[in-house]
Structure formats: C-alpha cells, structure tokens
Amino acid sequence: MTGHPVTWFGPEKVLGRWMADLPGVVVGSRTVDPKTLVDSACFAMSLPHLSGCGRPKHVPRPIAPVSLVTTRAYRRVRGAALKVGVCWRGSRDGWHDFERTFHPREFAPIIEPLAGVEFVNLTQDAEVLPDAPFAKVSYADIYETGEVMTALDLVVTVDTSVAHIAGSLGIPTLVITPTVPDWRYEWPKGVREPGSTVFYPSVTMLRRTRADDLTVIQAVRWHVEQYAAALKRRAA
C-alpha cells in the first residue's frame, strides 16, 4: 500500500535464501527487534485473514524465488525420464506427525520400479531402505530443496514444507494429507473442487481417512502410473 517492501523476520538458515529471492521482500536481521523498524507486523500465516482474503478470487497467485521460477521454465523435458520427487516424512515436531509421516516400508509401494520413471528423494535426513532407488539426502535449506525440484515433473509428498515449495513453483503435486489437514487444503469449504486448493492450483490432495490408513498409498501409486502413461503418450 505504501510502496515499501515487505520485511521478513524468520529462521535465516532455513528460509533466508528463499525469502531473499522473492520479489518485493527484504530479509530482516534476527538480532533486531522488528518493532523498532516497522509500523506494523504480523505472523505470515495470518496474512490471508488480515488482508481480507475471504474468497477464492482474493487469493494471490503463488509466489516463488525468481531464479527458481526461471530455472524451471527452461528445464529440458523432451525425451527424458519422468522425474518424480518423493517425501514421506515431515518434521517430528508437528503435533500430527503420527498420522502424516509414513515409515519407509509403508511408503515403498509408491517408489517401486516403473518404466521410464526416475524417483528423487526429497525427504530431509531420513533413513532409506536398502533397496530404495536413491540414497539418503541432506539439503542445506529450503532453497536448495527448491533447486532440486525445478527439474521434477511430479512431486508426491506428505503434508510438509515440500508440498508448499512444489505448489509455489507450480509443479504438479500429489499431497497425502492427514485426517486433519493444513487449513489451506480445506478452505473455503463448499467452493473449491474436492481434492484441490485455491492456494496452489497445481496441487491435488489425497486424504487419509484414518491415522493408520494405508490404502492411500495404492491410490497415489495409481496416480503416478497414470501420469507416467499420459506423459509417454504426449511424447510419442
């Protein structure tokens, strides 16, 4: 409203590079009290409410770092294998982690060998099965995870930061949501299409009916197979 950039104060090690590359955003120092620098401040998750975002038409388009958006726009796709990024675990600090995280063995059917498909591990610091098609990974921050994701054709993830990175980059994404999903996947009820979210048009949700529901794994695998088949037809 005033023409001044948005100043973001948060965990610089994890989100600093991502936020610094967003248009119109300045990263503030964690050592300075925001109240001494700005006239008003709010938690980022409160912005949709405070800005009057009451209907789908009020939702702004997803915003992502300029460099990552550009890299994804120029990625090579023709003739290459379908690259599917997967994430089966969220932060253990989340109150509902018991019903959103899968054991690697439970998640294994999704990454079984599939002709023309290469699976990429997006799960931070998670142990992998000996027969997994990838190794354990450790990303420096959210931005590095985004760099890897710019080359992906599809993302399959539980309800964690990977889902929001993929959604903001416009990557086709399947999100396995717990019985009580993130509010952005539920709002606004009765307006959006089931399994969709107005915040991330490229995201499709498959919800667990119970905390111990594993039938969603087969449903996700079916979607991956269908996506691979459709890409193969388009390339023919």
Describe, in plain words, how this protein is organized in 3D.
The chain starts with 5 loop residues before the first strand and ends with a helix. Helix 6 (142-149) packs across helix 7 (161-168). The chain is α/β, with parallel strands linked by helices. The strands form two sheets. It has a five-stranded parallel β-sheet with strand order 4-3-5-6-7, with helices on both faces. Strands 1-2 form a two-stranded parallel ribbon. The radius of gyration is 19 Å and the shape is globular. The protein folds into two domains: 6-64, no CATH class; 69-235, Rossmann fold (3-Layer(aba) Sandwich), CATH 3.40.50. The model has no long low-confidence stretch (mean pLDDT 85). It is 28% helix and 14% strand. It has eight helices and seven strands.
Short summary:
This protein has about 240 residues and is α/β, with parallel strands linked by helices. It contains eight helices and seven strands, in the order βαβααβααβαβαββα.
Pick out its properties.
2 domains; Rossmann fold; 236 residues; 7 strands; alpha/beta; 14% strand; 8 helices
CATH fold topology of the largest domain: Rossmann fold
Residue share in helices?
Answer: 25-40%
Output mean pLDDT.
Answer: 85
H/E element sequence: EHEHHEHHEHEHEEH
Strand percentage lies at: 5-15%
CATH architecture of the largest domain: 3-Layer(aba) Sandwich
In total, how many domains does the architecture comprise?
2
* Low-pLDDT segments, ≥5 res: none
Radius of gyration, Cα only, in angstroms? 19 Å
